[in-house]
Queue: 3 jobs
Job 1
Amino acid sequence: MKTKTRYGHFGNLSANYAQARQGFPAEVFDLLWSKLNMPRPKILDVGCGTGISTRQLTQRGANVIGVDRDQDMLKRAKENQEPSINYISAAVTDLPFEDESFDAVCAFSAFHWFANNKALGEIYRVLKPQGAFFIVNKVDDGDFKTGYRMVMAPFIEGHMPDPTQKYQWSDLLAKNHFGDIETKYFPAIEKFTFENAIAYLQSISLWNLVSDSRKTEALKAMTDFCLSKRDSEGFINRALQIQAVLATK
């Protein structure tokens, strides 16, 4: 099967994704566990990618199934697979599970790719009564994202998409019968080595919009950008607000 390389697909970027993408702070999982209040919840991690959040959920004691449509991302996830994790290739709009199967469904840095009524209907269906839907996003709180988008803009023809701007999560959740919606923010800083910062920029979906003929030139521009962002210890810092949205079926 040919790997898709268009915007919104990550399979061809999976090596850089696995190298450079970072996990989520403990406070995020504390919030979810305060809702679940059980020792070994059954959790579905949708849009699990290379399994970063899936492994963190498992380390908290959950019984986790990770779902992603991209076989290449799942292949990377299975390279670091923990015994209690099961990975399944499926679309969020057509989940292969029985009704009321999970105590929680989670979407870490993924909900913007399937923020639609059909996907939410499926998530609602597989949740147990009073089950939790947990959405976590990394919201840039500094100039890192605006900086790299400016650097990449000359190498991308036409409009530069930003999927995180496409939806209003509160309206979508309410429309799809979720209640008790609460949002919390947790400040965080991701620190990248120079090499991992370059890998990170080549793991974002915008990289697929740079034509092969211009990738060398674009990589040079991104290298200059990362060099300019190094702190006194040589790290590149990405300031974040971790947005955690918790809703109940």
Job 2
Amino acid sequence: EIEIQSHLRHPNILRLYGWFYDEHRVFLILEYAARGELYKQLQKEKRFKEEKAARYIRDVAKALHYCHKKHVIHRDIKPENLLLDMNNNIKLADFGWSVHAPSTRRKTLCGTLDYLPPEMVSGVEHDQAVDNWSLGILAYELLVGKPPFEHQSTKRTYQKIKEGKVIFPAHLRLSPEAQDLIKRLLNVDPEKRLNLGDLPSHPWILKYAPPSSPSPSSLSSSKSVVKSSSRPLRTTVQQKVV
């Protein structure tokens, strides 16, 4: 984590300035994210309007595209690992599951259950396209308020992920452009997922988060610093697939 994050320089990636340790702990010196986790903002608002969600997805995609060009796979995209600075700019954080993989494909099952891609669930090799899938899950959760394949049963969650059938709540009336972007990211075939380099030119992004659009801070209902609060923990997974 330290080795990878210390070499990343991007406006939407949390900066790691240094580290030190004692006999029991390792301390990281990180960029200050005044507004805390995106998850807490989402919990407060339940779900985001398309303008706000599109700006966040656009900026996370830029951060991930940069990582992929550096041969880094994050492997744990979720609202809890996205922080906000004082201006509500996204900062990709927590590279604990990340890996530098310039040539090899991976077989480790890891991450957060609701965000796992079909290839991990099926136990086959995966590459950077796992982040594209997780970005699609994130987009859905920001707009709907929960992940698309969420279920009380872990087994059923795995089944729904492998099926990849996305259902959009009719009463939310999500735009056709938003639904198209999510479906293209949540393609069960990793090779056919929307390329992150092409995402900024997708109709949904151009409509709701064009290059000249204001920062998400102007769309926030709260100007105060996010404080720590209790929240339910999501199921995380780690398993070496043989």
Job 3
Amino acid sequence: MAMRDSMSTIKARVEELKRTVQFQRTRRDEYGAIISQQSLALSKTEEEAVHEREENGEIQEAISWYNRVLGFQIEGGHGVKFMFNDINLKNPKQEYSFTIRHANDDYSLLDCNPQLNGIKELINELNSTSDLFGFVRIMR
């Protein structure tokens, strides 16, 4: 009888261990799937970061070109200040600038040096077209 009880206890323990092993395998597979998903997400994020760094490098290169060749600079603050030099052949270092602000889907001119004729019409056109690039080109 003791032998039978011992065998029964051993069989129960073996069954319990089999369930534990199966549970652990299931958890391993679940964790493996999670790790695989996270690894794919990490790879995608790393690729996006590399792409973003490349784009930032290209943007910095373009900004440098605009500064060097066109004498063009941008400065942030209460509004955005656009500054130009290399316009006056007699005094290439002379700075020309204007500052605009964009709020509530509306552009407003905060400052313009020197003052230009027809600036109100240009601002109205900018507000109707939202073509900031074209506006900056005309202002230069």
